[in-house]
Design brief:
heterodimer; A: about 625 residues; 7-stranded mixed sheet; 16 helices; 23 strands; about 20% strand; globular; B: about 240 residues; mainly alpha; transmembrane (chain B); ABC-type transporter activity (chain B)
Chain lengths: ~625, ~240
């Protein structure tokens, strides 16, 4: 070939290379090799798309020409675009996708801002850009103001939720009875809290999750009846509910409407409040909650004085002195601990429960008790009252494993009323108070239900802390706004459950997908074994140490009796001996603590050496064989 | 094309006749494992049964190791004068280029596959996603092919192995950094955004990442294969000039 021809061929081929790559990037198919098909449309999305009745428009706004756009966003935009195309294909013509590039000062930009999209600026500077989605059906419009590459694993859920929610003309109503500030501190309470020097509480993300599908109707604990037209009822950490309200809950459930009930033997929120109030001499709040009358009538056993500790599912926490230790009453649960056959938990991979209680079915109960979340068999009870001053290490020693404990359960079937004598009568009037002569039965003209009309569904969970942001999300700043990334599937579980109770099953099958954490099971088992192995030895050492310390204090007391130095040589020697014993025991305890980690560390080192040497050794042996073979 | 096989066989076995190849294999396997277990990699401390933290170093390891394996492909033949001898044989330039490239690629693939004890380790420690492991290995092999394509080209352009090595490290580094925001920002200052986008699409890292997540996307497959094809074509042109 001549030089000119060669150059032309090279240039042509270069153009072809760019073209081929460009064309390949527009091929919509791709192979998802992950075990859970986390990058493909799930059956739930497909079913949901198949049910769409009226056309829906998807407007994807992406300023692809903006300068300084982070490469991660460009890649993510391609991912979002491709996923939306999959939606359009699966909707059989019900979805229309428009890809819009809103250039500055154009009608497209105005439309984007009018729909609630916000321009973003990357950390490196550059032009502001739009990257969001507007979903419209008739006069209903929903948006994702900013796509966040950190939420890639939840992309399908976020999109499906938007497409689903835009079809809801009237959201179902969720009644919320709670003593916790899940919705944030109200303006009235703020003043009171300021006077008491208490921090106002921001609204929790779980309420945002629930608000996406429900209209939340708050119900006061002092109410005597439930507002009309509720579809689902959530009772979270019930405190001082009036008997009439309890009766209303009972009748709501027996009437066939679903109830979400979260009780807690030890609420972190109230524990913290207790600490603050103690500083100002206030009364200690009750940290536990219960609805004993209702729970026992429905055949559920729950003890508000016991907290579950699990040696295997302990969470690693930092102690006051900065050391890392496993805290067995903070449960970090994984995929295996969730009921894979039940819809609300089928797709969950991780959750965290803080000082949870346990639930079980009472023998002979007519209802069906389905455990949804369970601990490992290495779990046992700890008295809630003993947690106040106990150190993490000491708590582990108090646990004697008694088998799996149920943290959350679904109870279904025909429930019997907790009020066999009908609605509770009014409280007798206090002196000077005008008595309401109207009887409760008159307030409920319809006869009280003695038994469920059809099948009733009650979801019970023995913890309330898991609903707080502190244990469910990591908040961070995204272009000046607070964004949240799930730490675990707590929020997904909360949303799944109420949506399941509210009847939208399609969304549940999507959520939680792709968060599949695959932990080192071998290491976890070793940690449990080590703790079990040294448990007795540590207890014995601690007992000896406190005996020695008691002796020392006693002897030192004698020495300084009446401010006079009366230390005989014998006492001085005994003090010296005990001090030496104390140091020796402490040393032994340190050694055991080191031994607890030793097994795992040496496994890590062994694996490092095996991996460093195995293949090089194989290569070396092959080399020797090859060399000898050649010489022959 | 019939002669590709004999060239491949001769070249591939040739690797094992030289101690340099063993040093290369051992060095690669040793460093890749050491990096994964190091404080930067944190493979064991992460407690997650996945090889993410092993494969994330591959684009950087390959940046030096592939040029080291590919620098001698043509430079050595040119320097020692065996290139002329090679072309007196009844083979075409394309046969020779393909045979040599495939042999070197097979050798690099062998290096990648010899990291199998790491896969066994995660399987022992937990329950890894085998689909993701397989696509990660496929991605690593294609990544090695992409680097190698560039290296064979620089090797064909010079007699000097050191020059070939430095040129391939430079060229491959550009193809790695194209995916970084700072680099694309500079490109955007020189070219329109759409041109900068096309150039940024030629980054090794972005195309490799999808494989490590368990996705086989046609655009990533086409990227590596077309890059290999293009560099091999240039290789032929360079040898025939």
């Amino acid at each position: 070939m001549k030089f000119g021809t060669k150059t032309a061929a090279i240039l042509l081929l270069l153009v072809a290379l760019v073209l081929v790559d460009y064309l390949a990037s527009s091929i919509p198919a791709r192979l998802d090799a992950t075990a859970d098909s986390i990058y493909s449309l799930s059956p739930g999305t497909k079913t949901m798309l198949g049910k769409i009745e009226d056309p829906i428009t998807l407007d994807l706004y992406f300023s692809k020409d903006a300068s300084g756009l982070p490469i991660a966003y460009k890649n993510y935009a391609a991912r979002v675009r491709e996923m939306l195309r999959q939606y359009v294909r699966a909707s059989h013509g019900k979805l229309t996708l428009n890809i819009i590039n809103p250039k500055p000062d154009t009608p497209a930009e105005e439309k984007a801002t009018a729909a609630g999209l916000q321009p973003q600026v990357s950390r490196q500077g550059g032009e502001p850009f739009y990257f969001g989605l507007v979903v419209t059906q008739a006069d209903q419009q929903k948006t994702i103001p900013n796509f966040d590459p950190n939420r890639e694993q939840f992309l399908e859920y976020d999109l499906s939720k938007l497409v689903y929610s835009v079809q809801l003309i009237d959201k179902p109503k969720l009644g919320l009875i709670t003593s916790l500030p899940l919705q944030g501190t109200s303006p009235q309470e703020m003043q009171m809290m300021a006077m008491m020097h208490r921090q106002p509480q921001p609204g929790q993300f779980v309420i945002e999750e629930w608000s996406d599908t429900f209209n939340i109707v708050p119900v006061e604990a002092t109410a005597t009846e439930l507002p009309a037209g509720l579809d689902v009822l959530a009772v979270v950490h019930p405190e001082n509910l009036t008997p009439k309200l309890q009766f209303a809950i009972d009748q709501f459930l027996l009437g066939g409407k679903p109830v979400f009930l979260a009780v807690d033997p030890s609420s972190q929120y109230f524990k913290r409040q207790g600490g603050q109030q103690a500083m100002y001499g206030g009364p200690q709040p009750n940290v536990s909650s219960d609805l004993p009358k209702l729970l026992s009538a429905y055949g559920i056993h729950y003890d508000p004085t016991k907290v579950v500790g699990d040696l295997e599912k302990a969470t690693q926490v930092q102690t006051a002195n900065g050391a890392l230790t496993r805290y067995p009453i903070w449960l970090s649960l994984t995929k295996d601990d969730f009921n894979a056959k039940a819809l609300p938990t089928a797709q969950l991979n991780s959750a965290m429960f803080i000082e949870a209680g346990s639930l079980s079915a009472q023998p002979g109960s007519a209802t069906t008790f389905t455990p949804l979340v369970q601990t490992s068999p290495q779990a046992g009870d700890v008295a809630a009252a003993a947690l106040q001053f106990a150190q993490p290490d000491e708590i582990a020693k108090q646990i004697t494993p008694t088998g799996k404990k149920t943290i959350a359960a679904l109870v279904t079937g025909k429930f019997t009323t907790a009020f066999p004598d009908g609605a509770p009568k009014d409280e007798p009037a206090k002196p000077g108070e005008k008595k309401d002569t109207e009887s409760a039965d008159h307030a409920h003209p319809t006869p009280a239900l003695k038994e469920s009309k059809g099948t009733s569904t009650l979801f019970v969970v023995a913890d309330t802390d898991w609903l707080f942001d502190d244990y469910s999300v990591r908040k961070y700043n995204l272009f000046g706004q607070t964004a949240a990334q799930p730490l675990n599937d707590n929020l997904a579980f909360a949303a799944n459950t109420v949506e399941f109770l509210g009847g939208s099953e399609d969304l549940i099958s999507i959520r939680g997908k792709g968060t599949s954490l695959r932990p080192f099971t071998v290491v976890k088992a070793m940690e449990v074994q080590a703790q079990q192995k040294y448990k007795e030895k540590l207890t014995e050492l601690d007992t000896r140490l406190s005996q020695v310390q008691a002796k020392l204090t006693e002897l030192q007391g004698k020495k300084n009796e009446g401010n006079r130095l009366v230390a005989t040589p014998e006492i001085a020697k005994a003090i010296d001996d005990f001090r030496q014993q104390q140091a020796a025991i402490r040393g032994e305890r340190r050694q055991i603590r080191a031994a607890l980690r030793e097994g795992i560390e040496s496994l890590g080192n062994r694996l490092l050496i095996i991996n460093l040497l195995a293949s090089p050794l194989l290569v070396g042996l092959f080399g020797i064989w090859f060399y000898r073979h050649r010489r022959r | 094309m019939k002669q590709v096989c004999p060239v491949f066989k001769r070249e591939f076995l040739g690797y094992f006749r030289s101690p340099v190849a063993y040093v290369f294999l051992i060095g690669f396997l040793f460093f890749s494992v050491a990096l994964a277990f190091s404080r930067f990699g944190g493979f064991f401390e992460s407690g997650v049964a996945s090889l993410d933290r092993y494969f994330m170093f591959f684009p950087w390891l390959f940046l030096f190791l592939v040029p080291a394996a590919g620098m001698r492909l043509w430079s050595e033949e040119k320097r020692s004068g065996t290139l002329e001898l090679l072309f007196t044989l009844p083979i075409t330039t394309l046969d020779a280029v393909l045979g040599k490239f495939l042999a070197a690629w097979a050798f690099l693939s062998l290096a990648v596959l010899l990291s199998f004890p790491m896969a066994i380790t995660v399987a022992y420690l937990g329950d890894p996603d085998w689909g993701v492991l397989l696509t990660s290995y496929l991605g690593a092999i294609l990544l090695a092919g992409g680097y190698l394509g560039v290296c064979t080209l620089t090797s064909a352009l010079t007699k000097n192995q050191v020059v070939s090595f430095v040129a391939s490290v430079g060229a491959c580094a550009i193809l790695v950094f194209l995916g970084y925001s700072g680099f694309t920002d500079t490109l955007e200052k020189w070219f329109p955004v759409s041109v900068a986008d096309v150039l940024a699409n030629f980054s090794f890292i972005t195309h490799f990442e999808a494989f490590t997540k368990g996705i086989i996307d046609p655009k990533d497959l086409v990227f590596f294969l077309s890059l290999i094809g293009f560099t091999l074509f240039l290789n032929v042109v360079a040898l025939e000039r």
